[in-house]
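Ticket #235: bound-state structure for uracil.
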Amino acid sequence: MRLDKLLTSAGLTRAQAKRAVAAGRVTVGGVPARDAGAHVDGASVLLDGRPVSPPGEIYWMLNKPAGVLTAVRDGREATAFALLPEAVRRQIPSPVGRLDKDVTGLLIFTTHGELLHRLISPKYAVKKVYIARVEGTPDEADAQRLTAGVAFAGFTSRPARLEVLGEGLVRLTVTEGRYHEVKRLLAAVGHPVLALSREAMGGVRLDETLGAGESRPLTGAEIDALFRAARLERN
Ligand code: URA
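RESOLUTION: The complex was predicted; output attached.
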């Protein structure tokens, strides 16, 4: 990482970073830095004698409210990204998969590109768990159809696990991540979705103490669970 990038990620503006280097306030490996564009990977960087740490990866959970898009930016509409704290947004984490505008619940954001890729790739079959209010109440035959795979134009869905929680209320666990997956699966077995919320993903459950639109960093155990689900070594 470049020295100026490290300093700006630690909170300085680019102009302040340049001035701090020019004024000899920054040392790299104990030697006053001369070049703000120098690469400083692995070296100990001090500003006014205090260590400047590279930013860590971001792993964050949001309780997505209905009515906001998952997109990072949208010129006109409210986005889930805009609900994250400013310091988190500055590192531009990406949403791990998309939730439709009307869908609520667990939306994870991360800056870790490989983890993101694996969590949403059908290849790694990471479990996503949804709670749905549906028309009617599915029965055992519906559950079996979902387990066997539903034939759509051009593909058959992977096995999905249906649990009936009550009248018109189900939990559906899927591993694929196709567009409108849960709505399409439940409609295909005759129980269109009335309301949908994501409860868990890759072993991480939505923190029920988060109100709609609230977010928090993942705990170490939650991050470990995501790496396990993605079959990725955490380093
Ligand atoms: N399935 C859907 O139909 N919508 C979502 O937002 C997520 C999964």
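RESOLUTION NOTES: The radius of gyration is 22 Å.
TICKET STATUS: resolved
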